[in-house]
Amino acid sequence: MDPVLIFTIIIVVFFGLLALCTPIFAALGVSSIVRFLLHGGLPSLETIPDILHRGLVSYSLLAVPLFIMMGEVMARTSI
Known about the structure:
By secondary structure, the protein is mainly α. The protein has four helices and no strands.
């Protein structure tokens, strides 16, 4: 399938879901699943857990939520 057509379909799905007042995380998730289905078919969905795992084990990204949590603890305890 033509990459421009896939991109157009994904954008239409994303903004269509946003127009239906779908939460942004769900619209992003559904549009990415549509991309996987259009680009590689059903077998390409098997790569999603791999991608999620690689994103979750990134130690450099671990600092961001811990920094936010530290700021919340400091704000609530008046440190």
